[in-house]
Amino acid sequence: MAVAPRHAARFVAPQAPEPGAWRRVEDRYLRRAFRHHSRTFSLATRLLPRAERLPVAVLYLYCRTVDTLADERVHEIGVDAARAELDTLGHGLAETLGGRPPAGPHALLWRRLAEVHGCYDLPAHPLRQLLDGARWDLDGRPVESTADLLHYSDLVAGSVGAAMLPFLVRHAADRERLDAPARALGVAMQITNILRDVGEDWRDLGRTYLPADALRQRGVDLGTAVPAGPPVPDAYRALVEDLMAQAEALYDTADAGIRDLRPTAQAGVRGAARMYREFLNAVRANGYDNLSRRAAVPTRRKLVALVGDGYARRRARLADRAGAL
Predict the structure, then answer these.
(1) Helical packing angle, 124-138 and 79-97, nearest 10°
(2) Crossing angle (nearest 10°) for helices 22-37 and 107-120
(3) How far, in Å, CA of 159 to CA of 325, rounded?
(4) What pLDDT score does 168 carry?
(5) Could you give the angle at the alpha carbon of 254 between the alpha carbons of 278 and 281, nearest 5°?
(6) How far apart are CA 288 and CA 262, in angstroms?
(7) Which pLDDT score, from 0 to 100, does residue 8 have?
(8) 132-159: per-residue pLDDT in tens?
(9) C-beta separation of 126 from 162 below 8 A
(10) Whole-angstrom distance, CA of residue 149 vs CA of residue 209
C-alpha cells in the first residue's frame, strides 16, 4: 500500500511500570511510534494545535496497522492468514466505532481510537476503505490503467485525507464540501510514494503500481529495467514525468481546499503537502532512477518547504540539468 515508509513494526502496547503512570506511558509510546513510522507527516503535525497532535497520531497508527498487514505481515503469516487478520481488523473497527473497543493485540489502538471517535466523530467510510485497499494488495490485483491507479490510491490514501478532516475543518458541515480536495491530497501523496518506491515495491513485494498499459505503451519492462539501474531509458523518464504531472495537478487541487480549513490547521497541512511533493524533485535529482535507489528529502529541505514554496524553481533547475545531459 505504501502510505508511508515501510519500516514499521507491529502495533504492540507498551508495558507500564505502575498503574498511575499508564496513561503517560501510552502517550509517549504513541508519539514515538508516530514519529518512527512517518518522519515527514509527524514533522508537519507539529504545526497543528497541541491538543490535536496525539489524536492525529492515533488515527495515523490505525492506517499504519492496516498498511503493515498488507505489506509486511503477509510475508510472515501468508495470504490466507493475512486476509483473516484483515477481517478481524474490520470487526475491531466496527466495534470501536460502536463504542465497544475490543481486547487483543490491538487493544491500545482500539481504545484510543474509540476515544478519538468520541471527541471528533470520525467518518466510518474512509476508515473502511483502507481495509478495501489492503484487500486489493492481498488479492494481488494488478494496476492495469491510470484509472486503477487513481482508484487504488484513493482507497489507501485519499481515504486518509478524508478521515483527517474532523481535525482540520472549521465546522462539521464543511467535511462534505472539503472531502474532494482532502482526497486529492492523499492521492497525490500516494502517487508520490509509488514513484519513490518503484524498485523497492518490485524487488521486495513483487508488485508494481505503475499502470500496466502505460508501461506497455512506453515499451518498458520492469523485469529488465529494475536490476539495470541508471541511466534509466528515456521512455521510462517520460512515463515517470506523466505520473508526476498527475500528482502535481492533485496537489494544486488540494491547495485550493487547504485555504478553507481552520486557520490553525492550514500551516500543518500545507507543510505536509509541500514536504511530500519534494520527493518528486528528489526522484528527478536522482536522474529518475527510482529503480535501484529510493529518493530522499533531507530534513533541512523539508524545513525550508515548511516556510516557503520553492518547488517549481527547483523542478525547473532539475529539468535544465536533465536537458543538458
Answers:
(1) 180
(2) 90
(3) 40
(4) 93
(5) 15
(6) 37
(7) 43
(8) 999 999 999 999 999 999 999 999 999 9
(9) yes
(10) 7
Measured CA to CA, the distance from residue 45 to residue 57 in angstroms comes to: 9
Q: What amino acid is encoded at 187 in this protein?
A: V
The closest alpha carbon to 243, from 206, 294, 296, 288, belongs to 288
Q: For residue 202, what is the DSSP state?
A: I
For the chain, which residues score pLDDT lower than 50?
Answer: 2-9
- Reported residue count of the chain is 325
Q: What is the pLDDT of residue 323?
A: 61
The three cell numbers locating residue 230: 541508471
pTM: 0.88
What is the structure's pLDDT at 165? 96
Is the preceding omega at residue 5 within 30 degrees of 0, hence cis?
Answer: no
Residue with cell 514499521: 8
- pLDDT of the residue at 2: 45
Return the C-alpha cell found at 218.
512506453
- Using the structure block, give the residue that is written with the C-alpha cell 467535511: 175
Cβ 143 vs Cβ 209: under 8 Å: yes
What is the chain's alpha carbon radius of gyration, rounded to the nearest angstrom? 20
Give residue 20's pLDDT. 56
Long-range contacts of residues 47-50, Cβ cutoff 8 Å, at least 24 apart: 47/267, 47/268, 47/271, 47/306, 48/167, 48/264, 48/265, 48/268, 49/264, 49/265
The whole-number pLDDT of residue 7 equals: 42
Give pLDDT, residue 309.
Answer: 87
The backbone torsions φ and ψ at residue 259, rounded to the nearest 5 degrees and listed phi first, read -65, -20
As given in the structure block, the three cell numbers for residue 298 are 533531507
CA-nearest of 149, 140, 137, 158 to 69 is: 137
* Residue whose C-alpha cell is 486489493: 136
Given this model, what pLDDT does residue 6 score? 45
Q: Do the beta carbons of residue 306 and residue 275 sit within 8 Å?
A: yes
Q: How far apart are CA 268 and CA 137, in angstroms?
A: 30
Q: Look at residue 175 in the predicted model and tell me its pLDDT.
A: 96
